[in-house]
Amino acid sequence: MASSAGAPIQSRPYRSHRVPACIRCRSRKIRCHIDIPGEPCLSCRERRLKCQYADKSSDGSPEDMNGGTRTPKRQRLNRDANDEDEEDRPRSAPVLHRPSNHPSASIILAPHVAEDVDILQRHMSQHRPPEGQGSDAGQYRTLNQDTADPIVYLTVPRFRSGLAPELGAGKEQLEILQQLMGPFKREVVDLFFSCMHYAFPVMDEESCFLLKRGQLEKVSKNLVCVVLATGSANWFLSDTLKMHPKPDLHYIWNKAISALHEDFLSPSMATVNAAVLDQTGRPSVSIMGNLTLCGRTISLAQTFGLHRDPTKWDITETEKQNRIRSFWGVLITDYWSSIAYGVLPHIGKRFYDVPLPTIESLMPIRATPAQRCATVSFVHLCALTELLGDILPLVYEINPNRATLSDTVATLKVQLKKLEDQLPDWLPLPNKPGTSNLWFCFLSVRLLLSRVNLRAAVLADEPALKKSRFDELRQASTAILDYICFLGQSQFQDFWLPYATHLLVHAVTVSLRCAVETPNVEQRMALVSTLERFIAHIQHARDNYDWDIAGYTLERCSESVTKIASLTTRGSAPPPEAILVMPERPDPEDAHTGPVIDDASLLLSDLLDPNAFDFSWEALWNTPSGMTNFAL
């Protein structure tokens, strides 16, 4: 059996027999070079793996105790290389978070408490007898050497008294899902990686390693349930699966969510990752469920200290990278659900110091060009999310500073332009994996800034400024609609955050408002024409490309667009350059002309049911129009 050495190997002479090579280097017949004392060898470190060594008691024995024949060499090496139990982790750095079946968990202490505990621990360590340690030695763990800002973790019981799960959270749900998938479990897991993971890489490396090799029994059960549910959403993208009936997605998601709720009784880091993947899974059908799950996930993540920068902590490099990617997954779900659902964000910009993830830390060892593009898009999405955290307070502030609001928006626009300038050359055109969702998010942030800018003009009570910013808002919403009408099958089947459906509702609603309030008849007819093309296009995408993002948008907006169109005079057809190849749709009886909406007293509430929307006009939000060049 493979195990790590009792103490970290500080160095290894070339071709040394006294200090054996690790299992991976021996199997590949390459030099096991330990260039950094106490760390894995160079070959394992490049692959972000841990050195494993064969026990001396089993090295020379040709037979084992079970049947007399030794396991084949390749099988033994694979078994040993994949063993991720606690005792196989490197001893050079502590392992902070234990698996969900471990009876104890580590939670971070508040800064004011951590400083006091750190001082007491240092004092007690100086007066501790050499033969023993104090009774509190195992309760606290200090992870850095910074006396001004110590990071201290406290060990607490993981389970409630009498509620320790005997079978493991999610065991029953996973058995049901495995029965549903039958022989196609591996195909569904592969769909998760190809369609979701590289564009949203929040899962830890160990779980990815085990899932790719089909060792589902070694991964948290609730996490496997969420992976199977996420992969099933892309069922028809698999050449193998599309030949077979697709299971009921709602039933699969209900089982996965049930397993996740069970896991919250004894949460671990896998609970955080599973909850983040659950919130970004599609289709998104439960706003209330996602809102409450988001709050629980953020609270758990902060309890584990994910909001603090781990780069200088005394933990393994792998755990540092896993914590960073998990936190940014939590932050993305918090900020984008805030603007999508209309709720206050839970994480303040001043209360975390986690650095942005790097492409190198997220990239697989042998990444394909498509995987690299998807991962690059995720890094830029993280940077955009950080900027969104600066905008959200302006959206939800009840009494903003009227004198500085416009200047603040102008500064944020400059920062948004800088982020756009940092995008790769192949953006903004959505012809690479992950780019369709990324550029849509950029356009949505522009729309949000324009909406806040209009609010600043209304508060300043300047009619001329209000008119110019109203035109800017109209162009911003039209830009999003034109962009969606530009997309085709490959883009609709790419990765999308589920919040896109709510952001589309916002864009359509702003365009409807502009159509009602604009005094220019030509602009009104152009807006209505764009809205009709947009509704027809996303309906075609839903029916033909299984784009579930369109479902909620059509439910909320199609009837409203029809009502507005029926009350607007039909003008001439749009110019040829604005015509997109659209699917044929039934010719509604809309050739008749209705009254022109020139009455200034006509309100949007006269045309729309105000109860159909969960947000007020003042909570809405900017991008330019034209959209021939999406990099405006």
UniProtKB/TrEMBL annotation:
Which PROSITE patterns does the record match to this protein? Answer: ZN2_CY6_FUNGAL_1, ZN2_CY6_FUNGAL_2
Q: Does the keyword Protein transport apply?
A: no
Q: Which GO terms describe its molecular function?
A: DNA binding; DNA-binding transcription factor activity, RNA polymerase II-specific; zinc ion binding
Region annotated Disordered, chain positions: 54-103
Protein's GO biological process: DNA-templated transcription; nitrogen catabolite activation of transcription from RNA polymerase II promoter
GO CC, one annotated term? nucleus
**Key words, A-Z:** Metal-binding, Nucleus
Limits of the Zn(2)-C6 fungal-type domain = 21-53
Q: Which PANTHER family match?
A: GLUCOSE TRANSPORT TRANSCRIPTION REGULATOR RGT1-RELATED-RELATED (PTHR31668), ZN(II)2CYS6 TRANSCRIPTION FACTOR (EUROFUNG) (PTHR31668:SF10)
User: Is this entry keyworded Flavoprotein?
Assistant: no
Q: Which InterPro entries match?
A: Carb_Metab_Trans_Reg, XnlR_reg_dom, Zn2-C6_fun-type_DNA-bd_sf, Zn2Cys6_DnaBD
- Entry protein name: C6 transcription factor-like protein
Q: Which organism is it from?
A: Karstenula rhodostoma CBS 690.94
